[in-house]
Amino acid sequence: MQRRVFLKSAGVAAVSLAGLGSGNLFAKPAKKPNIVFFLIDDLGWTDLSCFGSEFYETPHIDALCKRGMKFTDAYAACPVCSPTRASIMSGKYPARLNTTDWFGAPQPYNVQRHWTRNKPLLPAEYKERLPLEEKTMAEAFDENGYNTYFLGKWHLGPEGFWPEDQGFDVNVGGGHAGNPGSYFAPYTKVNDLPAPKGEYLPERLRKEAAKLVRKDQKGNPFLLYFSMYSVHTPLQTKQVLKKKYKEKKKNMGISNEWITQSGRRVRGVQEHEVYAGMIEAMDNSVGKVVEALKEEGLYEDTVFVFMSDNGGLSTSEGRPTCNLPLKCGKGWMYEGGIREPMFVVWPGVTEPGSVCDFPVTSTDFYPTLLEIAGLPLQPRQHVDGVSFVPLLKGEKKLERKAIFWHYPHYGNQGGSPSSAVRCGDYKLIEWFESGKLELFNLKEDIGEKNDLADKMPSKAKELHKMLVDWRKEVDAKMPMQNPRHKG
């Protein structure tokens, strides 16, 4: 287990200045809130009971969600994991960072060994690490007196670019791997996490998280970034949970149903008993962390964030979940690949049970959490993030015109190189193989069934120009023609 401890000299300075600012040298500064960020891997938009699932059970997450604000139109910055994770840490779009694919995906110079080698396009070249030059969200909190803890999946670069190199005092299990290899010990891909044979990873990580919550804080607030490996493949759960959901499926009278979306066979109903067991184990992890906070008297002083890094896995690799009414899933530029279950609990500020439908994205967490904590913003760093604190306080909108995506790669799940923009209710996708534009009104057509590009050419042209101008601004890398392609 990787652990580092720093002296919090920056925090001491901040406390002194806070006292001076109040006009009383001996005034006790207001306590900074703790931040607990739950980032789930591959969790679909409707994979929680509080987001509409009737098969999966998430009582702990549901209870937490009721205390805060649920975001119905929250987005990951990319339909695959590493780019979104980089966007959270940096406050920048993956296209600006040139971290546009999951780290380990083929580059144009080695694609000859990959199944996409004969596709019409070569993928754009990308960086396979979060540059150390970026001042991460963890570093911003660390230098302002916060203890910073990381647990779980990192997948943001090789050794030397791990959490302990990017601002986290403690790293439990985070390394280069994108999945654990196995959810039962020995964990073949989890960095430096020895365990007795057969131990279940979600249970181990939640125990480690509870330990960090309970440790002597020495008066410092903390940022706990619990980035779970769940519910990424391999599809594995405890037998007792598999049996439970197999029986539930039988009692509900549901069976496997298949539909077709974009030429792919897609699960049409949530009924996968192993995946359901993985979701329950993930929910139990959230519950145990919340329980530890309550026992330590920290629950009311803690801000909670819950988010997924990309859409649910629905078009390949077991197709374990169903994202309906959204189209497709992980690896696709349609809503199923980028729209995420998200909520924020800010005690005393967010109205319990409130719902926000204004679009936000993963780049926004950096400035938002700094503002919540009363820490200095880093405008030169989180250039693509917009603080959504006004939404948490009850405002209806932010001063932002559009949200952008750029994925110049072929996804393992069937998606093709593309870019997209959402402006108001409209979303435009540009597919690079054909140059085809698709336009959807998401308010009226959340399932993206009705392409309006031919019916509304002026709107399509307007959004396409916006998208092209944005790509130029961020210097987005584009795919190239593949000389191996025949056709």
TrEMBL record:
Swiss-Prot/TrEMBL cofactor(s): Ca(2+)
Pfam families (UniProt xref): Sulfatase
Record keywords: Calcium, Hydrolase, Metal-binding, Signal
Family, similarity comment: Belongs to the sulfatase family.
Taxonomy, superkingdom: Bacteria
Domain named Sulfatase N-terminal: residues: 33-374
Gene that produces this protein: atsA_23
Molecular function terms, GO-annotated: arylsulfatase activity; metal ion binding
Signal sequence, renumbered to the chain: 1-27
InterPro entries: Alkaline_phosphatase_core_sf (IPR017850), Sulfatase (IPR050738), Sulfatase_N (IPR000917)
The protein's Enzyme Commission number: 3.1.6.1
PANTHER family (UniProt xref): ARYLSULFATASE FAMILY MEMBER, ARYLSULFATASE G
Identification of the protein by name: Arylsulfatase
